[in-house]
Amino acid sequence: MSLIQLLPEHVANQIAAGEVVNRPASAVKELLENAVDAGADDIHLLVRDAGKTLIQVIDNGCGMSAEDAEKCFLRHATSKIRQADDLYTLQTMGFRGEALASIAAVACVELKTKRPNDETGYIVCMEGEKRTSAQACACPDGTQISVKNIYFNTPARRQFLKSDEVEYRYIEEEFVRVAMAHPEIKWQLTRDEKQVYHLEPGSFRQRVVQLMGRAFEQRLVRVHEAAGDIDIDGFICTPEYTTKNRSKQYLFVNTRYIKHIGLSHAIETAYKQLVPEKNYPAYFLRLKVKPETIDVNIHPTKTEIRFNDEKLIYGVLLSVVKHAIGVTQLAPALDFDTENDVVVPTRKPLGFPEPPRLNLDPNYDPFAVAYKQSGKKPSYASDVRQGESLQAQLQFYKETFAPEAADAAEAALPKQGRPTQSEMAVSTNRMSKINAEPNGVVPVSAEALAAESDLNNKFLQFASAYIVTTVKSGLLFVDQQAASERIIYERYLKSTQPHEKPAGQRLLFPKTIQLSPSQSDVLKEIREKLAAWGWEIEWVGGGSFIVNAAPAQTQDEDIAALVENTVDDYISRMMTVHGRQEDNVAVALARQTAVRHGQVLSRAEMMSLINDLFASECPHLSPSGRRTYWIMPETEVKQAFKNSK
Known about the structure:
It is built from 20 helices and 24 strands. The chain is of the alpha+beta class. The radius of gyration is 33 Å and the shape is globular. A hairpin with a 2-residue loop joins strand 19 and strand 20. The model is unreliable at 332-350, 369-390, 396-406 and 408-456 (pLDDT under 50).
């Protein structure tokens, strides 16, 4: 008996469907691209129950004949290619002829279509790849295709679908990608009888603002360059606007949305040192290249492509984005209004200006005589370093500047505020040479550490990102951002209890924020949860909201950006982690309000952070799953010195 057998056609179709239609959003992508290829300029997408019950696409394209309407459900039936060489000159979105066959294999499909010159249309009904009816009908020009009860005949696949909210977000993302690539087309999206998007035709900039929200009007920077066979056009966002994920990165090649690690790296490299660590820039870029220089047939979803000369495109893209950023950074400094400018005299003809002469007194010390001449008691309100006591500042002045000035200051202090000798010793070692050390690392001598019996005086900050202290087993390194996320996350969860509920602090000037339709729906959904944590956010219609109150710890933040980034973070986490709404909102808020890498902390702040971390329920991991601390054993330190011989 032969071990190798030919698969039945219906099994082969279901396997193909698993590659092409792995979730309702995949069917949406294929149907929308078919509508675009049909030349439609008005496309309407309707979904019910996140596509599980209904996906319907209505377009006013060229339509099909009765014969083509029946053929289109056959595998490898396509009007796009005739021979293999056609793969390298493709100008359309779909081309392999598997989409409708794969969709029909796992759903009930109804197709109504009519060409403009035909008197009647034609309707074809499919159920699990079996044609149940086909006949003439009355319908408008174009095509209407309805996909009902997806995966009705493959319940195992249906049970792997996520919640309606998650599946809808995937559908919406596919809609946004295709709609952004074709701003000349009118698009509509209706979810459960409620219209979410109504996009009128316009420019690419207008389409980006329609989809991303009116706040992007002030963030977009034009990018345009034609270099040989490469044409780059679109917009990047100013470095001031970043996101915690890559959800606002859209790259199109010949109107096809793609994901390309190399090109994304080129764009992010252009932003290097301009955006915070682990933040990502936003961009909306379109590339036009010759079809024969790319290969789009390397992935079932066609979102990955190959370039003949990737290095050339990488270099051009990097250069163009860098130039756009440079112009943006320079523009605010340019002022062409010269009416009130100071008139600078020009030199006399054939004359040369004399070099300036500086007369310096090397023995002059302003701190040695400042207080003696004024006869006033000194005020330290503006001089005390953040987080340091008056005594520590006093010792710093005594060592660094003039003893006389410090003595005068000490005499002005109340007796109970004067430092002890042990406090002076600690402060001396911690404060001396603070400005001479890179990355905010404060040197502490071995004698000072040995003399300290309290852990509160053993904190250093390394690279403005890690807190270092000694423990019995060695050196403790704490990631200040990951630790802060853990602390804030647990604080938010505990505040759900009535006696722990934080009071919101009203803003002196309420903040108005503009969100995209997608963000607006999510914020309306989680507003109640945010209200339990001290937020007061009012929806005023469309994508507009007013923030009237916020938790006290967020008062110094950019409230509008904080809310927007929290919503984006929540959406991203919801689609990847699929946790409880309460947890996802708490994680999103913690990530946005945590202490950042690069933020210099005082000793008191470092002490508080470590104490709060180890008082938490899960101190070793951030809510995102990152490690919060690491201990270098004493034996490892000793071994490192032994190996250095």
